[in-house]
Amino acid sequence: MIKLRLKRFGKKRAASYRIVAMQSTTRRDGRPLEELGYYNPCTEQIHLEVEAILKRLREGAQPTDTVRRILEKANVFEQLRLSKAPATVTTTT
Fold first, then answer.
1. Other beta carbons within 10 Å of 53
2. What is the 3-state secondary structure (H, E, C) of the chain?
3. Tally of structural domains, the chain
4. Tens-of-pLDDT digits for all 93 residues of the chain?
5. How far is CA 12 from CA 21, 64, 67, in A?
6. pTM above 0.85, yes or no
7. Is residue 92 part of a domain?
8. Containing structural domain, residue 22
9. Which member of 15, 26, 50, 88 has the lowest number of beta carbons within 10 Å of its beta carbon?
């Protein structure tokens, strides 16, 4: 299963995280399938590649709890719902 999760990098006691798509069995700092953004908890700086994240979510990737909160702050799930909304359906009787 593919998960969207955080990969730690940076200095000791000044960690930053990359948001990555990885196999669920891969270790935390292993090789990711794709890097989707980054998060710096010290400065609250967030950068997301929204199109790539939406693509992974449509393919069935599951975000971890922390990544889910970051994506909710950025309204990524709202964009996913809007893109999945069916087109106007007309019926004839």
1. 25
2. CEEEEEEEEEECCEEEEEEEEEECCCCCCCCCCEEEEEEECCCCEEEECHHHHHHHHHCCCEECHHHHHHHHHCCHHHHHHHHHCCCCCCCCC
3. 1
4. 999 999 999 999 999 999 999 999 988 888 899 999 999 999 989 999 999 999 999 999 999 999 999 999 999 988 888 877 554 454 454
5. 24, 23, 21
6. no
7. no
8. 2-84
9. 88
